[in-house]
Each structure stands twice: as structure tokens, then as C-alpha cells.
Amino acid sequence: MLWTSLNQSPFYRVLRGMSILQRIRAQSTRWAGRLAVIGVLMVNAGCASLVSSAASKFADNLSAAVLNQNDPEIVRDGAPAYLLLLDSLLEGSPEDPALLAAAASLYATYGTVFAADPDRAARLTDRARTYSTKAMCVSYRASCEWDGMLFEDYAQTLDGLSEKHADVVFSHGLASLAYIRAHSSDYAAIALLPYSEALFERYMDINDGSDDGVVHTYLGILNTLIPPALGGKPDKGQEHFLRAIELSGGTDLSAKVEYANGYARLLYERDLHDRLLTEVLAADADVPGVTLLNVLAQRQAKILLESADDYF
Q1: Taking the CB of residue 78, how many other CB atoms lie within 10 A of it?
Q2: 56 within some domain
Q3: DSSP letter assigned to residue 7
Q4: Does a structural domain hold residue 19?
Q5: Domain of 153: which CATH number?
Q6: pLDDT tens by residue, the chain, 312 residues
Q7: Cα separation, 215 vs 51, whole angstroms
Q8: Residue 111 domain boundaries
């Protein structure tokens, strides 16, 4: 989501995706690994192993610091430096799938979480999807033909994805979701919904399970972006939101906010909406690994509650 709501709403997940900053968290484990890759690329080959170890430790510490930060503005103001860093590294290594995936994730996250201007969000998420599409193509040749492919044919190509493709698959799914949200008035973007859903479902098959809660939130969003009359599947979305909440033990407040914003508002269930958001505001946001996400979720919950009378 953006700072305000779905067709402007904040994208907590996408941390979950600078997790490479929000939905940072969904990427927190990947953020550390990718920063380590960046560190290695910046040093002499002769001392690469030594610096790799230092870079990895730095990356781990940076990731933890970002996710445990309770002031989102600090993260927002610092992230553009990493966007430029990744762009500069890609100038020298334009075919590196790890760098492409990292750039895609960070642009997707920043564009959905921190870009308040819709036009800017559209530009940033467009770049994110361009990077992720290239990362997929470099890593998995069959994906080079995905653009314009019929869904039935696309679904068949997903069987060839394996555990080694997990990182780029996650990045492409995240970038696609960010792109769809930022271009929700574009029917061509909405047509990508079933493709993104199928990709995330395949991701859960090839991943180690550590990101399942995050992915269930993403799938909940994808199924509630549009009303049932236009092909939305709110009941399925609700199942995913409930599973995401269960997997986090209720500590990831963004899942409840997305549930309220995506499902309860879509079906005009005021009681559910207010109950979820009240629970979010009453919860302790200071939870290791999700503090930033929770602070952002509470801000969004406050906005949604304050606008509830007008909405319902």
C-alpha cells in the first residue's frame, strides 16, 4: 500500500519485503544475503572472502536494524541511497540475477510503501517489474516467453521452477504485486492477477516454508484487489489472511490490516473491520523482526478507522 490506502494503501509486506525495506520483512532474510552480494562485488577479488564475511555480518546487522526501527521516516529517507547503489552495480553487471532481484524487491517495496505520489509509485513499480522480469529470464529461460502468454501455457511452465529459483521467483512475485497495485486502474495490470497468484503458489512449493506467512498475506491481497463481480475471490483471500495471522501468532499486525482493508472493506463487513483494526492499535508494535512493519500497520489502522464512517 502507499502511505494512505489500496488503491493507495500501504504495502506492508512487501517487506515482509529496505526487507529490502518493508513488505521489507518478507524479504528480511533475502535482504541480508543480497547486501552481502553487493559488498562482495565492491571489493578486490584478492580479499573477497575476507570482505564477504564482513559484508555478511554488516548485512545481517543492517537488516535487523531496519526491521527493528520504530521510525519509518528514517528508513524512508535512507532507502534511496540503496536504490542508486543497486542501479550503479547493475550498470556494470546487467545480467546478474541476484542484483536484478534485489533491485526489483527494493524498488517494489519503496514504490508501494513510501511513494505517496501515485505517478511516482507507478514509475518505481514499473522499474521493479522490469528488473524482476529480467532476473527471471536470466535464471529460467522459459520465463522469457511469459509476456503475453496464455494462462494455461504459463501455468505449465511453472512446473520447471525449483528451489534454486526461489529467490528470483519471490522477487518477481513481489514486483508484480506492487506493479498491479500501483496500476490498479489499468485493465492490463489487473489481468496479471491470476499469473501472480499462480507464481506465489508455486513459490510455496519450492521454498523452505520460512516465508509462507508473508506469501499468504500476498495471496490474500491478490484475491481481494477486485470485487467478486470482476473476478475477485474474497473467500479465498480470507483463508489466506487467516492463515497468515495464524502463522505469525498474531504478531505481524500488517496481516490484520490487510485483512480489514482488503476483505472487510470489499464486502462491507464493518464489525470485522473495526475489530481487526482495534486489535492492531491495542497491540504492542515492538516485536523483534517486525517492529517497522507493525508501526506502519498501526498508522494505517488509524487511518482506516478514522475513515470508516465515511466508507461504510
Answers
A1: 14
A2: yes
A3: S
A4: no
A5: 1.25.40.920
A6: 333 333 333 333 344 443 333 333 333 333 333 333 333 333 333 443 333 444 445 545 666 677 788 888 888 888 888 888 889 888 888 998 888 988 898 898 889 888 889 999 999 999 999 999 999 999 999 999 999 999 999 999 999 999 999 989 999 999 998 999 899 889 899 899 999 999 999 999 998 877 788 889 989 988 998 889 888 899 999 999 999 999 989 998 999 999 999 999 999 999 999 999 999 999 999 988 888 889 999 999 999 999 999 999
A7: 33
A8: 25-311
- What's the sign of the alpha-carbon dihedral 72, 217, 130, 88? positive
Pick from 12, 236, 194: nearest CA to 109 = 12
Backbone angles phi, psi at 15, to 5 degrees: -160, -60
Domain membership of residue 5 (yes or no) is no
Domain for residue 18, yes or no?
A: no
Ramachandran quadrant class, 262 (left: phi over 0; alpha: psi -120 to 50; beta: rest): alpha
pTM score? 0.76
Number of domains comprising the chain: 1
The per-residue b/e assignment along 277-302, b for 16 or more CB within 10 angstroms, e otherwise, is beebeebebebebbbbbbbbbbbbbe
Distance CA 286, CA 293 (A): 10
In whole angstroms, what is the distance from residue 293 CA to residue 23 CA? Answer: 7
Q: How far apart are CA 199 and CA 186, in angstroms?
A: 21
